[in-house]
Amino acid sequence: MGCFNSKAVAGKEKPAKDTKKSGKDTKTGAKKNASGEPKPQNNEPTASVIEQKKDADTKSGNPQESFLLSVLEGTEHFFSTLPDSDAMKQVIALTFVNSSIEVTRTKFRIKFEAVKEILATLTKKMPLLNGCLSKTEERSMDDGFSRILLAWANNNSTFEKKISAQAGQAVLDVLYIRYTLNDQVSFEEILKLHFRWVSVNQAALEVFSKFSEGKDVMTPDQLGKFLRETQRVDDITDRHITEKYKYRFGGGVHRYNFASYTGSVLTNNVIDPSCTSDVWQDMTQSFTHYLIGCTRINSEADVNRAISESTCRAFVVDLKKNKNGQLCTGTCPLLTLLDNIKKNGFTHSTYPIVIFLSPASAPPVDVQDEAAKLIVDTLGTMLAKGMMFEGAAISDPKFSPGALRKKVLIASFQGELKPFVGFLVADMNKDGLGVRVTDIVEGTPAAKGGVIKDDWLTHIGDQPIKNKAHLRECLAKLKVGQEVKVKRENMDELTIVVGGTVDPQDKSVSSALSGIVFFRLTKNLQDNKPWDTVCVDAAKVKSSSLNRTSLAGYFAHVSINGSASNVQELIGDALNAGIQFIDGDLSETCLAFNRGRFYNNGRCGYLLKTSLEGEKYPDLGFDVICGPRAVGCSPMTGGTVKVFGTGSARLSGTRVSVSGYNESSVVVLEMTCEQNGEEHTFIASFSPTLIRQGYRALPCIAQDEEKVVPRRIHGVYLLVNSA
């Protein structure tokens, strides 16, 4: 039927939106199946299943009945063989029947009572399931059973008793069950694997026995005590407990669904899901107030990883031509990157993507010209116009991630810009009276400042305007980004931020590329504008003038070498300074740091910077109870722990202690477990400010698989308490 593949331990962040490929798991990732058909998303149907969709209804005039028939008989048989008491079997059956009713009701859009009637007919010869019908409640469902049932339905549109290994693998993946299927599988066999997988975590089963006081079933009162006193969910009410008992455990808490629920990163993640499931921060503030996840693009695999994981929104490219004359970043054609951004770049996150031309090496001007043309031709209206051309202030509402959803921003060095205001004027009937505005172009700095046609302008700054020649002389002295005040005839004052136009005489940078820049790269640390991005050496960050206060008004970029002996210090300096673009290489160290840093805020790739002054957090401590189920929940035998940014960490046996941290800190924990004489190392990365108390599951990824696409996460069982 299937066997566990200990090498198949690649992690992933968002199972419901994964783009996984099918076939047997290997250390280098999943392969296609024999037919070459890609594997589906975890809870979505395979391509072959979709093709069969139209045949499903014709095969059976009652698809909901066919669906239930495909699962009920095997379930009855499996539950009856469990080595548990009859009372416990009845509770397990009740949670399953409740889940079956709810999945059927919502999927096929029929009423609760109608589903019960169907079940009453179908289970006449199934005493265990039939005996539960009188106790069922509407909208009551067990989290594990409901996920499996829905995945079974989505990957078995004709509702056969057995499904292909490929479809069965998709069902197992829904609950991160790391067994590999090699043959067709029935629903009963899926349940067996689920219960076997859950039972591997003996520690979770022991926790259940402790808090249920040795009983087969945990009461709502016992569940409430566990949540309040151990999990430290202080604001939970009796109503919340009743709802959790019903909506998460299906009307009964037994050792299997307790171990499944509390031992999984899907349902009991130690990293606060209120911060990681959805975007919760204000996304309308100035762009300079956000940290932006960076990743380098050296291959097509890097593109696939970056696109599938929304935690990175700045794609750093190093443009060169390959031996065939094709414009590439590393070995990846630039066109491939652009096409992927256009088609899939905003699937998981709608916040803007930055194409960041590496400041380490500037390509020749002709290559810049070609790149600019390719970018414009491919992305078209997806490109955002640089604020320096419109004369925008940092407070401009358009200058924020929220205002630029589904837009692509270019970061590059830029040629000289000539000051530009954007209105035409005519002289009055004599000098000294000012000028009259004869025309104004929409979207120009003057229009944004409030100047309209037929305005009578009398002053610029503190100087009276003599005539249009004098006004032209005054404007020529201005700099791009400078604020200038003009007075109208009625003496009210307008503020205009001077914009710019590309100077075609500057041949140092491609004019075409300069014209599409949004973030202007510079090495100048003085007089920076909101769109400027200062490129600074990582070793000089600490001694530079860059800090969170100064970087509220412009950007900074730093490149990190993951193999440097002081990489931890370099990243920490950049974090403490509030540098927006921390461009780590593709080393495991930098990838792990980036994963933990941008797990927050719904993993959208943007994090709002906060003031770190006066911030104090209590010391954090937790015990690693056991390793992932993939290695039999074997105990942790060794490891290391590091803090990137402020704070320190210590590992003593299986006890991890973190102190002195703040919101910018990232902890990277390496844990080694042994199974059958073979060592397996898993890496967890997280912000300590997001850790929850109690028995939890810590997401981690197998060592050497940070770049594997798609990645699969594992859960390490913890007890988080005082340090």
From TrEMBL:
Gene Ontology annotations of biological process type: intracellular signal transduction; lipid metabolic process
Gene3D superfamilies: 2.30.42.10, Phosphatidylinositol (PI) phosphodiesterase (3.20.20.190)
Matching InterPro entries: PDZ (IPR001478), PDZ_sf (IPR036034), PI-PLC_fam (IPR001192), PLC-like_Pdiesterase_TIM-brl (IPR017946), PLipase_C_PInositol-sp_X_dom (IPR000909), PLipase_C_Pinositol-sp_Y (IPR001711)
Biased composition range(s): Basic and acidic residues: 10-28
Annotated stretches, region: Disordered: 1-62
GO molecular function annotation: phosphatidylinositol-4,5-bisphosphate phospholipase C activity
Source superkingdom: Eukaryota
Entries under PANTHER family matching the protein: PHOSPHOINOSITIDE PHOSPHOLIPASE C (PTHR10336:SF209), PHOSPHOINOSITIDE-SPECIFIC PHOSPHOLIPASE C FAMILY PROTEIN (PTHR10336)
Stated name of the protein: Phosphatidylinositol-specific phospholipase C, X domain/PDZ domain containing protein, putative
The species this protein was found in: Angomonas deanei
Organism taxonomic ancestry: Eukaryota, Discoba, Euglenozoa, Kinetoplastea, Metakinetoplastina
